[in-house]
């Protein structure tokens, strides 16, 4: 058979090849059908494409791209707004997400189904408001609470986003304009002054230093306390004025945004007659949340908002659900199984005949009060009260609760992860000890050092340095040590006008003129330790006056200027652990080589002494950061010989680094030990007692910091994070799987030692031995992770949660702690000096670390204990009435009729019992003083015994007993009318509930008494007013009163006796302390 050739698309081809019928060769109708089908397909595909494009544009992840920025011109392309956003919702997602968060809990979903079923007439058993009223109330409370929380986050974000910045404009009359940080765009030129936060990621163009350098603080970004040096692009630094940037034909190419805060690739290109390219790296950048340490900086914005390094290292905020809520969700499922089981039992007794499914559903509805919807209402209102109490605590002024859904989590914490800089420490270095071998100086005796220097420099003939051939006097040794500290460093003094000018231009003010009275000196360096030492020499009378690349000038106690020429500088590195400098005294012509560094390397360099190791150990035990200072006096010939060899090594083509190291080490032999210094990084107020309290409370503390290993170890000791009788095991740098295996085995054999590990080694251990490492780390008394990136901090929190299933808390004060805080079950932010990022992102915000003990041990305990008691009592309230309903139905021919109708059912869970039951949020088992004096009480909370299967089933048995007693008692004692059963049983039920609340209260509050009396009064009024439910004549008789009292007594008295016996023979631990 021959087929006609035709053009068709793939779909048509498939249809043709798969067709089994005959083929129509006439073609007219088929062609018309194909055209219509193609039109439909084209329209459908076009709509799908549009919808996909809209979804990717609005909701999909933003594509990150590299960009070219032309100086002084608007940048083409769509870039995100420069705004910080910690909100969970927006105007479109708020209602759907809040409803989803509520109905993903079985409790709320169950009641939604129950309430919806009441629209079906055949299975309706009561008024609609008895189901929809409580459900709508719960949802309204939740929606309002979430809205208030998110509006507060929005308000806090607005405060940060509305901070004013100086944006350079192309105008000579007005060189800059003030704009909000959120209005900055890619390509804007902005000026950042000293101590100001960098509002967006910048490439540095100009600084107030002629050299184009500026120091920044990055502790809010990476946790490192060292100041970092940043350099402006040389071509733009050389311009005479800022406004010339608008006339410069140049562009900057920058890589696409990425997380790595330690790398950057870019290119600066001139398009004018000058031409040429300059490569850009990390030294030319200023990342968001860095702080300018001195002077001014002018940069061009390259990344904004979510594309900045700071935000990309933060995780998105998540909705946190407390462990108590999850436990109650599980118990709710058990109760639902009980409801279905009870309904099936009733149907089995009744018989599965007729429309049995209708009766089954009616029974399920009748017993639905076993799962009380008021549980959510009471818990949510309780959470709000706990949050309010925390904020109003006079002992914790300044504390704020950002997330009101998880206050109970504070009572279940097993692991606390803390930042170091700004959280445990103030990042303020102070020299605390100067040891010369025979004598040690402390802050109390530093005045003696000042007197020695004053005497030494008042006589010019005694001011020359000793040649070291004879035994020097103590005064000479003091002077030599102070001179060494004043010369051996990389510190630069920066002078700034105290009055200041506000013209917006970046001007040079680094040239110091000590005669200008309105100038104040500020020291800047890459290490705060060096600044502390130089600041101390100034305090005792020998001040650093001037410093440039080739010279240094000191000012003595009498104002005499001492000039030195800098011949060589050997900077500090993590490998050498020391820094050195060779200087020439221009007064005497003497050449000195000064060296300072860690004791582990310096002990082999200096001449042998019997006191060095002992004194260094003593200082380290006090938590001081030690430096050993030494010197060597060189002759002119010795220095020239060294210089020749040093320059030759630096010019070597092969093995340059090792050759240079060998030449320097040839000088580092038999050096004269001058002194040992001990610098203290000031701890936050009451850090030591707070950490001790938390450790005694059974909380394991991990310190996660971006700072150096040595610094982290010092703070771990000085803060008592590691107790005196515990050792520190520093995990060596591991690169391979074998290294990790050997180190982990070595740590396993160490026993009771705290673990210290770097971020790089942590990555390797987690890659190959994650379960083994986490088992060892979680068993250690404390863990210190140094050189941690913000992402690693969050990863550590996640691993602890995964491997231990315990609750974690994270506390920090910087932008680099936000990811960790958001990942933890309870995130706590401290409002630090450098910013509010951690405070804004945290679930709780405290002004200082010492408040953490009270937050956890007092408020955490109260919140958890109260919520556990409240939730079980609310379940008891539902179980007891469901038991009575089951007894009633079984006695009255298994009828699916409600025992109590309409207002009685609504009033039972609201006005009659709500206030006394809710007053349990005022109860407390121990006072705040006892909770803080005996932190060991907190250990019991982590075990979750206040709300467990054991306590839950105890309450189930109590409910069944009391419900059975009340219902059978009413049936036995009533005489003629059914309405009398309702009056007797309901009155006994209300009295039983009020008495049970009183039996469970441990510390009475005046509001509890008022709540009991108010509920009793309201019910008494109801007895008089509700004639349709109660026989007004019967309730006036003595029969009514004695029957109600007898039933109530039988239901409550045995429980009271059991409580007394238990208190006598098995009292709880806290009762022994009260």
TrEMBL record:
CDD domains documented for this protein: P-type_ATPase_APLT_Neo1-like
Organism taxonomic ancestry: Eukaryota, Metazoa, Ecdysozoa, Arthropoda, Hexapoda
EC numbers, comma separated: 7.6.2.1
Entries under InterPro entries matching the protein: ATPase_P-typ_cyto_dom_N (IPR023299), ATPase_P-typ_P_site (IPR018303), ATPase_P-typ_TM_dom_sf (IPR023298), ATPase_P-typ_transduc_dom_A_sf (IPR008250), ATPase_P-type_domA (IPR059000), HAD-like_sf (IPR036412), HAD_sf (IPR023214), P-type_ATPase_IV (IPR006539)
Transmembrane segments: 91-113, 125-148, 334-353, 359-379, 874-894, 900-922, 952-972, 978-999, 1006-1028, 1040-1058
Name of the featured protein: Phospholipid-transporting ATPase
Keyword Ribosomal protein included in the entry's annotation: no
Domain P-type ATPase C-terminal: 840-1067
Membrane association type: Multi-pass membrane protein
PROSITE patterns on file: ATPASE_E1_E2
Family: Belongs to the cation transport ATPase (P-type) (TC 3.A.3) family. Type IV subfamily.
Domain P-type ATPase A: 174-308
Cell location: Endomembrane system; Membrane
Catalytic activity, as annotated: ATP + H2O + phospholipidSide 1 = ADP + phosphate + phospholipidSide 2
Sequence ranges assigned to domain P-type ATPase N-terminal in this UniProt record: 78-132
Keywords, alphabetical: ATP-binding, Magnesium, Membrane, Metal-binding, Nucleotide-binding, Translocase, Transmembrane, Transmembrane helix
Enzyme class: translocase
Organism: Nicrophorus vespilloides
Pfam family, one: PhoLip_ATPase_N
NCBIfam families, per database record: ATPase-Plipid, ATPase_P-type
């Amino acid at each position: 058979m021959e087929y006609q050739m035709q053009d068709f698309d793939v779909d048509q081809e498939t249809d043709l090849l798969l067709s089994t019928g005959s083929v129509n060769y006439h073609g007219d109708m088929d062609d018309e059908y194909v055209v219509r089908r193609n039109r439909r397909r084209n329209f459908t595909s076009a709509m799908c494409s549009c919808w996909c494009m809209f979804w990717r544009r609005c909701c999909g992840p933003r594509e990150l791209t590299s960009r070219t920025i032309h100086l002084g011109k608007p940048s083409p392309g769509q870039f995100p707004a420069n705004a910080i956003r910690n909100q969970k919702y927006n105007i479109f997602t708020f209602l759907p997400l809040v409803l989803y968060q509520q109905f993903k809990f079985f409790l709320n979903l169950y009641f939604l189904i129950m309430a919806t079923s009441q629209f079906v007439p055949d299975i309706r058993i009561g008024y609609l408001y008895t189901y929809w009223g409580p459900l709508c109330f719960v949802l309204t409370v939740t929606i309002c609470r979430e809205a208030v929380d998110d509006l507060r986050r929005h308000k806090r974000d607005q405060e940060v986003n509305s901070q004013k910045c100086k944006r350079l404009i192309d105008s000579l009359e007005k060189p800059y304009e003030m704009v909000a940080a959120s209005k900055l765009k890619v390509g804007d030129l902005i000026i950042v002054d000293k101590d100001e936060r960098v509002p967006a990621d910048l490439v540095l163009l100009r600084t107030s230093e002629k050299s184009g350098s500026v120091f920044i603080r990055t502790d809010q970004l990476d946790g490192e306390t060292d100041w970092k040096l940043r350099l402006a692009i040389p071509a733009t630094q050389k311009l005479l004025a800022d406004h010339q940037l608008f006339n410069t034909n140049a562009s900057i190419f920058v890589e696409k945004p990425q997380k790595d805060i330690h790398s950057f690739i870019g290119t600066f290109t001139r398009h004018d007659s000058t031409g040429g390219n300059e490569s850009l790296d990390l030294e030319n950048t200023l990342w968001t949340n860095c702080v300018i340490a001195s002077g001014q900086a002018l940069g061009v914005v390259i990344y904004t908002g979510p594309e900045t390094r700071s935000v990309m290292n933060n995780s998105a905020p998540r909705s946190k659900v407390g462990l108590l809520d999850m436990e109650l969700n599980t118990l709710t499922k058990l109760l639902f199984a009980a409801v279905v089981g009870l309904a099936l039992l009733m149907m089995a007794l009744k018989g599965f005949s007729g429309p049995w499914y209708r009766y089954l559903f009616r029974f399920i509805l009748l017993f639905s009060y076993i799962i009380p919807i008021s549980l959510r209402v009471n818990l949510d209102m309780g959470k709000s009260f706990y949050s309010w109490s925390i904020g109003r605590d006079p002992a914790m002024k300044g504390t704020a609760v950002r997330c009101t859904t998880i206050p109970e989590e504070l009572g279940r914490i097993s692991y606390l992860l803390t930042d170091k800089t700004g959280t445990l420490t103030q990042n303020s270095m102070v020299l605390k000890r100067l040891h010369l071998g025979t004598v040690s100086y402390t802050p109390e005796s530093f005045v003696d050092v000042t007197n020695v220097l004053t005497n030494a420099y008042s006589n010019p003939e005694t001011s020359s340095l000793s040649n070291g051939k004879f035994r020097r006097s103590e005064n000479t040794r003091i002077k030599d040590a102070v001179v060494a500290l004043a010369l051996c460093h990389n510190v630069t003094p920066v002078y700034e006008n105290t009055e200041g000018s506000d013209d917006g231009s970046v001007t040079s003010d680094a040239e110091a003129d000590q005669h200008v009275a309105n100038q104040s000196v500020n020291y800047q360096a890459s290490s705060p330790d060096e600044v502390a030492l130089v600041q101390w020499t100034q305090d005792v009378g020998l001040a650093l006056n001037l410093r440039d690349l080739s010279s240094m000038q000191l000012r003595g106690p009498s104002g005499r200027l001492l000039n030195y020429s800098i011949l060589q500088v050997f900077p500090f590195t993590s490998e050498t652990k020391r820094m050195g400098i060779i200087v020439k005294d221009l007064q005497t012509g003497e050449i000195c080589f000064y060296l300072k560094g860690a004791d582990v390397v310096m002990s082999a360099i200096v001449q042998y002494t019997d006191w060095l190791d002992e004194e260094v150990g003593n200082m380290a035990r006090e938590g001081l950061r030690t430096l050993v200072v030494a010197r060597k006096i060189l002759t002119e010939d010795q220095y020239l010989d060294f210089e020749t060899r040093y320059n030759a090594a630096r010019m070597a083509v092969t093995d340059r680094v090792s050759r240079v190291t060998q030449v320097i080490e040839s000088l580092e032999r038999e050096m004269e030990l001058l002194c040992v210094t001990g610098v203290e990084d000031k701890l936050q107020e009451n850090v030591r007692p707070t950490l001790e309290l938390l450790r005694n409370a059974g909380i394991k503390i991990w310190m996660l910091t971006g700072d150096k290993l040595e610094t982290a170890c010092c703070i771990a000791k000085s803060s008592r994070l590691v107790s005196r009788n515990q050792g520190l095991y520093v995990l060596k740098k591991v690169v391979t799987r074998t290294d990790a295996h050997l180190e982990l085995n070595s740590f396993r054999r160490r026993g009771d030692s705290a673990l210290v590990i770097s971020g790089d080694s942590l990555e390797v251990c987690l890659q190959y031995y994650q379960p083994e490492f986490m088992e060892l780390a979680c068993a250690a008394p404390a863990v210190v992770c140094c050189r941690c990136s913000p992402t690693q901090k969050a990863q550590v929190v996640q691993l602890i949660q995964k491997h231990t299933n315990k609750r974690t808390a994270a506390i920090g004060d910087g932008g680099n702690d936000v990811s960790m805080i958001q990942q933890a079950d309870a995130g706590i932010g401290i409002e630090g000096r450098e910013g509010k990022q951690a405070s804004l992102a945290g679930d709780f915000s405290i002004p200082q670390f010492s408040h953490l003990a009270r937050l956890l041990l007092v408020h955490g305990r109260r919140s958890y204990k109260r919520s556990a008691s409240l939730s079980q009592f609310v379940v008891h309230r539902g179980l007891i009435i469901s038991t009575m309903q089951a007894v009633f139905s079984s006695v009255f021919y298994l009828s699916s009729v409600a025992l109590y109708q309409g207002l009685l059912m609504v009033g039972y869970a609201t006005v009659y019992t709500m206030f006394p039951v809710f007053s349990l949020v005022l109860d407390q088992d121990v006072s705040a003083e006892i909770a803080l004096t005996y932190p060991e009480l907190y250990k019991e909370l982590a075990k979750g015994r206040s709300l467990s299967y054991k306590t839950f089933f105890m309450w189930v048995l109590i409910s069944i007993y009391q419900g059975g007693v009340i219902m059978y008692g009413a049936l036995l004692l009533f005489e003629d009318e059914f309405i009398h059963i309702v009056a007797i049983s309901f009155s006994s039920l209300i009295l039983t509930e009020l008495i049970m609340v009183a039996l469970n209260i441990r510390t009475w509050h005046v509001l509890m008494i008022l709540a009991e009396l108010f509920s009793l009064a309201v019910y008494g009024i109801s007895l008089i007013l509700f004639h349709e439910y109660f026989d007004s004549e019967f309730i006036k008789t003595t029969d009514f009163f004695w029957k109600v009292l007898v039933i109530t007594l039988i239901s409550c008295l045995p429980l009271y006796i059991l409580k007394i016996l238990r208190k006598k023979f098995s009292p709880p631990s806290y009762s022994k302390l009260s």
